[in-house]
């Protein structure tokens, strides 16, 4: 594998490009939004600078990584030479199905098509293409250059050869691949989201406050972040949508989103990205100040 195309230059797209470009792959980054493309290049440059400051890479390695990167605003041109396409566009099923139809037409016949989706069925995405055996989930974690895990999701039709190729590739990127099957939430979110939902329900029922819930999980379970802080970090709208995927996918009420989470999303309190969730972030995302609403 030499040529990688990444679709979507947002939070995840720029991180995925970063690790591929730094590992010596030629990367074509595609986004419909020119401002996002510009922002992604700036972010990647800044993150490479941070690695230099930490003594992890040299100036020459930074220059080489950046020289591996080309940006495109059009999918058809951006995937023309791809050995692998990693789609990391907005989490919306119709949008992703449409993107995969376009990639399927424009990418070389032997190219593997991967999605970084957090919750959409890989089997469904694969069925929108004429090469379902070459479609797979490649679920990187945020921030991609730092987080070791790649959750690899086999769709119903994914071939063993394709899975093996993606496992080997992930290792070459310095990541640790874990292969799972395609059922709602895969493994990461199937386990994480009910925990976050339970934390929100505990707050909703008045069993404990924001600080107590997060401290108990940080200090008692050695989690680096409490579940409520993590929900703010992920985005409460994203948590709600994944819980709804689990709820409808399994038809089990144990996944029903907590009414407090639903209310907060309706009120536009989505966490860090809107400046308020369980904490407020006017002073910067690093300072943990409990939101006025949840102060005792
Ligand atoms: N943010 C996370 O923590 C996280 C973690 C793991 C997986 N994911 C998944 O990664 C994917 C991307 O998430 P994100 O947080 O980076 O989103 P984001 O909103 O930061 O970025 C999405 C990008 O997709 C672009 N886009 C939209 N339509 C497009 C199209 N038709 N063609 C090309 N580009 C298009 C947008 O312009 C935007 O730049 C989602 O599927 C999400 O579920 C996110």
The run of helices and strands is: EHEHHEHEHEHEEHEHHHHHEE
Put simply, the count of helices is 12
Helix content: 40-55%
- Tell me, what's the shape? globular
How far is it from the N-terminal to the C-terminal residue, by CA?
56 Å
Sheet of most strands: 8 strands, mixed
Percent strand = 5-15%
Specify the structural class.
alpha/beta
Strand segment tally: 10
Low-confidence parts lasting 5 or more residues at pLDDT below 50?
A: none
Strand order of the largest sheet: 3-2-1-4-5-6-7-8
Question: How would you state the average pLDDT, rounded?
Answer: 96
Q: What ions, cofactors and ligands are bound?
A: nicotinamide-adenine-dinucleotide
Alpha-carbon Rg, integer: 20 Å
Explain the overall architecture.
- The chain is an alpha/beta fold and 296 residues long.
- α1 crosses α2 and α8 packs across α10.
Give the SSE map.
Elements: E1 3-7, H1 11-22, E2 26-30, H2 34-53, H3 59-67, E3 69-72, H4 75-78, E4 84-87, H5 93-106, E5 112-115, H6 122-127, E6 135-140, E7 149-154, H7 160-172, E8 176-181, H8 188-204, H9 210-221, H10 227-234, H11 236-250, H12 259-266, E9 279-280, E10 289-290
Parallel strand pairs: 1-2, 1-4, 2-3, 4-5, 5-6, 7-8
Antiparallel strand pairs: 6-7, 9-10
Helix pairs in contact: 1-2, 1-3, 8-10, 8-11
What does this entry show, briefly?
With 296 residues, the chain is of the alpha/beta class. It is 47% helix and 15% strand. Helix 1 (11-22) crosses helix 3 (59-67) and helix 8 (188-204) packs across helix 11.
């Amino acid at each position: 594998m030499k040529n990688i195309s990444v679709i979507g230059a947002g939070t995840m797209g720029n991180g995925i490009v970063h690790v591929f470009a730094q590992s010596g792959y030629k990367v074509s980054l595609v986004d419909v939004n020119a401002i996002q493309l510009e922002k992604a290049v700036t972010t990647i440059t800044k993150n490479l600078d941070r690695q230099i400051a930490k003594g992890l890479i040299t100036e020459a390695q930074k220059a080489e990584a950046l020289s591996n990167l080309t940006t495109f605003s059009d999918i058809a041109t951006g995937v023309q030479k791809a050995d692998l396409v990693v789609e990391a566009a907005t989490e919306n099923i119709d949008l992703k199905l449409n993107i995969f139809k376009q990639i399927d037409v424009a990418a070389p016949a032997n190219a593997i098509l991967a999605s970084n989706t957090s919750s959409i069925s890989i089997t469904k995405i694969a069925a929108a293409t004429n090469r379902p055996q070459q479609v797979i989930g490649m679920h990187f974690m945020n921030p991609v250059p730092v987080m070791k895990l790649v959750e690899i999701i086999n769709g119903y039709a994914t071939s063993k050869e394709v899975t093996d190729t993606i496992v080997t590739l992930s290792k070459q990127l310095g990541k640790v691949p874990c292969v799972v099957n395609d059922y709602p939430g895969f493994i990461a979110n199937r386990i994480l989201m009910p925990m976050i939902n339970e934390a929100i329900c505990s707050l909703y029922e008045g069993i404990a406050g924001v600080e107590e819930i997060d401290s108990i999980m940080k200090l008692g379970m050695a989690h680096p972040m409490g579940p409520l802080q993590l929900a703010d970090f992920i985005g409460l709208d994203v948590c709600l949508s994944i819980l709804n995927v689990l709820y409808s996918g399994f038809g089990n009420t144990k996944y029903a989103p907590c009414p407090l989470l639903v209310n907060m999303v309706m009120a536009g309190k989505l966490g860090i990205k809107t400046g308020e969730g369980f904490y407020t972030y006017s002073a910067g995302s690093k300072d943990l100040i409990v939101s006025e609403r949840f102060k005792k």
